[in-house]
Specification:
This protein is α+β, with helices and mostly antiparallel strands and 92 residues long. The chain has one domain (3-86): Alpha-Beta Plaits (2-Layer Sandwich). Helices cover 35% and strands 24% of the residues. The protein is built from four helices and four strands, in the order βααββααβ. It has helices spanning 13-20, 24-29, 55-62, 65-74; strands at residues 3-9, 37-40, 45-50, 82-86. It has a four-stranded antiparallel β-sheet, with no helix packed on it. Helix 1 (13-20) packs across helix 4. The longest helix has 10 residues, at 65-74. The protein is globular, with a radius of gyration of 13 Å.
């Protein structure tokens, strides 16, 4: 299963989390049906790990107006967004 890590700076981490938690329908449309892991640090930086069922569907909707609108509502600073498709693995 492919995982996607997204990091970004947000205007207000409390507002971001409140908004983020309202986007279940959007996440389901992106083929997300597993729990989403995320973290917030003291500098209003967030990291979110998604596990989409279909990476092409996920990436297509990630680049959609609906996702841009959700991110703007949540206070995401779009210029700081970094996307990592975790396609490598180290077995230990």
């Amino acid at each position: 299963m492919t995982k996607v890590l997204i990091t970004a700076e947000v205007e207000d981490s409390t507002k971001w989390e409140e908004g983020f938690r309202t986007h279940a329908d959007l996440f389901r449309s992106q083929s997300i049906n597993k729990p989403i892991q995320f973290s917030i640090n003291e500098n209003n930086k967030v990291g979110v790990c998604f596990e989409p069922e279909d990476i092409d569907t996920y990436m297509g909707i990630l680049d959609s107006p609906a996702t841009a609108e959700a991110m703007a509502f949540d206070g995401v600073k779009r210029e700081t967004v970094q996307i990592f498709v975790l396609d490598k693995e180290l077995k230990v």
